[in-house]
């Protein structure tokens, strides 16, 4: 494994967005539109994995959760409200400062850290998430290995990332970045992974893939979970035993 999987240019790019991260109409507007859908998917997988009551408010009570590439905390805060003891890790110190400030305003105790997954030094977590991050790292295999190393026995790993298809190139790079829905320079289409490629990395890291689901978009419905993986997709994996 390399010393770090952080790409300094990518960290700098996202660090510049830190002050605007929590503005639902700002540069992270797309993430705000996406967040309810991905939170719904996470809750579904959490309930299925741990056999929780879907009507309960704190299915992660007593569990440790890690979000890698947490930005300014859009996912960490809901995970904390679901009962988890949350650690948020990000490569950009500007994001971590914004995350800490927002958590303080929200009255949430979240352990935010600047660094890479390789810095965790043997710590393990029941839930590990990393959403729309792996396409920005220097070494996807080493990154997945780091995520797997941070997953406790019986734990759940959830990743999401764009698929490397003509649709994702058109929708995410040409159109979304072209008209400013996503900040220019956010994506390098050549870094996108196909589902079978990511699945292989996860299995090579010693985890069992439980499910792959698509994340679709339509002008009428917005973002939805579907069987169509051509734009973006989730992979859920677990460490059994």
Report what the structure shows.
It is globular, with a radius of gyration of 17 Å. It has a single domain, classed as Vaccinia Virus protein VP39 (Rossmann fold). It has helices spanning 8-15, 29-50, 76-81, 93-106, 140-149, 166-177, 195-204; strands at 64-68, 85-90, 111-114, 125-131, 151-162, 208-218, 222-226, 232-238. The chain is 34% helix and 24% strand. The longest helix is centred in the N-terminal third of the chain and has 22 residues, at 29-50. It has an eight-stranded mixed beta sheet with strand order 3-2-1-4-5-8-6-7.
List the helices and strands and how they pair.
Elements: H1 8-15, H2 29-50, E1 64-68, H3 76-81, E2 85-90, H4 93-106, E3 111-114, E4 125-131, H5 140-149, E5 151-162, H6 166-177, H7 195-204, E6 208-218, E7 222-226, E8 232-238
Entry keywords:
Rossmann fold; 8-stranded mixed beta sheet
Largest sheet: 8 strands, mixed
Report the top-level CATH class. Answer: Alpha Beta
- The helix content is 25-40%
Strand content: 15-25%
- Name the assembly state: single chain
User: Helical segment tally?
Assistant: 7
| Unreliable parts | none
Sum up the overall morphology in one term: globular
Please tell me the CATH architecture by its name. Answer: 3-Layer(aba) Sandwich
Estimate the mean pLDDT confidence.
Answer: 93
Structural class: alpha/beta
Q: Based on DSSP secondary structure assignment, what is the total number of beta strands?
A: 8
What's the order of the H and E elements?
A: HHEHEHEEHEHHEEE
Strand order of the largest sheet: 3-2-1-4-5-8-6-7
From the 3D structure, determine the CATH topology.
Answer: Rossmann fold
Distance between the termini: 25 Å
Number of domain modules: 1
Report the C-alpha radius of gyration, rounded. 17 Å
- Give the CATH superfamily: Vaccinia Virus protein VP39
């Amino acid at each position: 494994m390399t010393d770090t999987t952080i790409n300094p240019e990518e960290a700098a790019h996202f660090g510049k967005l830190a002050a605007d991260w929590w503005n639902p109409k700002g540069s992270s507007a797309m993430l705000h539109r996406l967040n309810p859908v991905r939170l719904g998917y996470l809750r579904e997988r959490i309930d299925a994995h741990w056999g929780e009551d879907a009507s309960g408010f704190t299915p992660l009570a007593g569990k440790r959760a890690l979000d890698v590439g947490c930005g300014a905390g859009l996912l960490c805060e809901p995970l904390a409200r679901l009962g988890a003891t949350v650690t948020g890790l990000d490569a950009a110190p500007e994001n971590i400062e914004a995350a800490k400030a927002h958590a303080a305003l929200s009255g949430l105790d979240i352990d935010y850290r600047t660094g890479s997954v390789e810095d965790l030094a043997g710590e393990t977590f029941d839930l590990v998430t990393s959403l729309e991050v792996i396409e920005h790292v220097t070494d996807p295999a080493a990154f997945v290995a780091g995520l797997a190393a941070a997953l406790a026995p019986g734990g759940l790993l959830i990743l999401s990332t764009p698929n490397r298809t003509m649709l994702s190139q058109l929708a995410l790079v040409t159109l979304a970045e072209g008209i400013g829905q996503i900040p220019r320079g956010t994506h390098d289409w050549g870094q996108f992974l196909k589902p079978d490629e990511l699945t292989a990395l996860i299995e090579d890291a010693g985890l069992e893939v439980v499910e792959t689901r698509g994340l679709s978009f339509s002008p009428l419905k917005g973002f939805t979970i579907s069987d169509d993986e051509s734009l973006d997709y989730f992979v859920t994996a677990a460490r059994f035993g």
